[in-house]
Amino acid sequence: MFTATYGGKTYDETHVQLIELKQARIALDLLKSKNCKPDEIFTKEQLDATDDFIQDLIAKSNGEWKSIDVRIHIDDMTMDEYLDNFYDAVKNPRKMLGATPDHMCYMSHLIEGETEWTNNVIEFAAGMPSDMLVRFSDDFMNEYAGAARHEEYPKRIVGKIYDRTNRMMGGVHHEFRDAEDGGVDMIWGIFYPAAVDEESLDIHREHTLVECYGWYRYGMERMGRRGDAMMPQGLVEGL
């Protein structure tokens, strides 16, 4: 067992881990405030290798896709509130980056001649950096009928994911409904080539849990229901 004492307090390993999380959040906030470009964080070779790896998975998948299918329930925020805060967050680079440590740089923008917002995000998950462009439209749902699966979820956010050379590498299909307790139920769908291994999918599920909780936390702060979004709830008390 590890313990340390100073300032009249004794800290065990749990306290140390909480302090480490606080330090990590501060360090990441400093990094992300620099508004770096993808190739200023990772090399072109690293980003190219991820793109090629995923395209190889697509070739092996024979047109089949599978989703992480993370199901989330929130009981103190309505569906409309969550979606309103989500849309506010994803158009704000600082809020988007803060949702998860795996987000390294981010831009939300309109492509010339289009009316739908697109998100350009670089994530570091499953040990590989990936620079992705998400174009939101119903194309993914319409072209891959397997994605349109839960009619009891009336709200959807659907789009295709592209790599740095404009090759499709996946899809998003997020579904929402009002919960019986006044909250919101979600099925957070991210579709990957079917040949991807289950361990990598689990890592992306963990990414999604942190990401969706981050947007929830920001929403609670924005609506005045919770304090500083940059500090996990209860962290100060835990120290």
Helix count from the secondary structure assignment: 8
Instruction: Give the CA-CA distance, first to last residue.
Output: 18 Å
Mean pLDDT: 84
**What structural class do helix, strand and pairing data support?**
alpha+beta
Helix content: 25-40%
In sequence order, what are the helices and strands, one letter per element? Answer: EEHHHEEHHEEEHEEEHH
Approximate shape: globular
Low-pLDDT runs of 5+ residues are: 229-239
Multimeric state: single chain
Record field, number of beta strands: 10
Taking Cα atoms only, what radius of gyration do you get, to the nearest Å? 19 Å
How much of the sequence lies in strands comes to 25-35%
Instruction: Characterize the biggest β-sheet.
Output: 8 strands, antiparallel
